[in-house]
Amino acid sequence: MTNDRASRRGFLGALGVALAGAAGCQTPGQTGDSSGSEAGGIATDAGGSAARQSTNATRQAGSVYTDVYRAVADSVVSVRVYARNGRGSEGSGFLVDGEYLVTNEHVVSGGDEFYVRFADTDWREVSVVGTDVYSDLAVLRARNVPESATPLPFVRRDPPVGTRVVAIGNPFGLSGSVSEGIVSGVDRTLRSANDFSIAAAIQTDAAVNPGNSGGPLVNLDGDVLGVINSGGGDNVAFAISALLCRRVVPALVEDGRYRHSYMGVTLQSVTPLLARANDLERASGVYIDRVLPGGPAAGVLDGSDRTRSVSGTAVPAGGDVIRRLDDTPTPTRQALATFLALETSPGDTISVTLARDGEQRTVDLELGTRPRP
Predict the structure, then answer these.
(1) Could you give the CA distance from residue 327 to residue 343 in angstroms, rounded to a whole number?
(2) Where is this region: Disordered (predicted)?
(3) Does residue 100 contact residue 197 with C-beta atoms inside 8 Å?
(4) Residues catalogued as catalytic
């Protein structure tokens, strides 16, 4: 136990952050099983001669992507999950510390046995240290990491749109696959459990498919911009941002869970119709549709109390419109979600600047902890 705690403290120090208060997974045995399949009569096992021939060809060709692959690939793993009900899943992951690996929560969810394989190893059983369904992140612990695998660092700020990126993982069970693209957008929100959202996600046009889940999206320096979450090979894929990972992963290592800030409201961005229904001068801000009973916002913020017909459409009216949290403008729901996810912790008191009944006012709100799903 002492060694476990020391190892976890070492991980937190290496990450350099303080704790704060679907590409889809693939079913094992599907086409492209990474344990070895037939393609044109040539076995594609990662440890076989075909892989060595591919590596030699890559070295001869050479490119900036070749350099990134060489720097990162040994730290990326195939993940295989088995459940007692006979079901299982397959995905990707990568090393973030001497013995800790990151993958997606949806890759390991419902599993009973967990295995990973590095580029030059056999399958090795690992344990799940912690999971967080609200950020779709999970941490695995491997006690026999090969020396060739080195931790991949998370970046400390969002990448500029247009940054060239590389996705490395195991789409369709094909281990060691690489796809390239750019950062297509930042500050995206993704659907999560219980109608919550994952804030601050990265959008990319790099090809991402089933089996890529949990793998790294890296820049050309090999630094991790995000953990791949979803995509379908259609030039629109998403990754959990490094900024959110830097908050969630240390907490999962430390005590197995992460506590998200919680306002206790349902929200929507202000649209032109909603602005007209609520006599707003501009279609900007975040509208409070409902305040949940017993939540942090109960008695502090107001939700809808009626509907109005605008252009033949019933539109909610009477709720507060949030313009700013502390000193951060919230022109959209995405901006509000990102502020809560990256800048606050449960128990914090924030100032909420809002429009109510045609006037602007500021109220204080103490944040709670998002309920478990």
Answers:
(1) 11
(2) 27-57
(3) no
(4) 106, 136, 213
Name the residue among 336, 338, 322, 313 with its Cα closest to residue 201: 338
User: In one letter, which amino acid is 329?
Assistant: P
CA-based torsion, 111, 114, 118, 123: positive or negative: negative
> Nearest to residue 32, comparing CAs of 156, 155, 174?
174
Q: Distance (Å, rounded) from C-alpha 236 to C-alpha 167? A: 13
pLDDT in tens, 321-345: 999 999 999 999 999 999 999 999 9
Q: Are 262 and 346 in contact (CB under 8 A)?
A: yes
Contact 100, 73 (CB under 8 A): no
Could you give the CA distance from residue 244 to residue 242 in angstroms, rounded to a whole number? Answer: 5
What are the tokens at 36?
């070895």
Report how far residue 329's alpha carbon sits from residue 290's, in angstroms, rounded to the nearest whole number.
21
Beta partners for residue 325, in sequence order: 328, 352
Tell me the sheet residues that pair with 356.
359
Q: Which domains does the chain have, with CATH numbers?
A: 2-255 (2.40.10.120), 261-369 (2.30.42.10)
Contacts of residue 238, defined as CB under 8 A and 6 or more positions apart, other chains included, come to 188, 190, 201, 202, 203, 204, 228, 229, 230, 231
Using the predicted structure, report yes or no on whether residue 118 has a pLDDT greater than 70. Answer: yes
Instruction: Check if the beta carbon of residue 111 is closer than 8 Å to that of residue 82.
Output: yes
Dig out the tokens for 352 from the structure. 């909420």
Over the stretch 149-201, which tens digit does the pLDDT of each residue have?
999 999 999 999 999 999 999 888 888 889 999 999 999 999 887 788 999 99
- Strand duo 113-117 + 76-82: pairing: antiparallel
Give the position of tokens 């059983």.
Answer: 125
Cα distance between residue 14 and residue 95, in whole Å: 13
Please give the Cα distance from 140 to 107 (Å, whole number).
Answer: 11
Full-model pTM? 0.83
d(CA 115, CA 113): 7
Residue closest to 241 by CA, chosen among 206, 189, 166: 189
| CB-count exposure of residue 4 (10 Å: 0-12, 13-18, 19+) | exposed
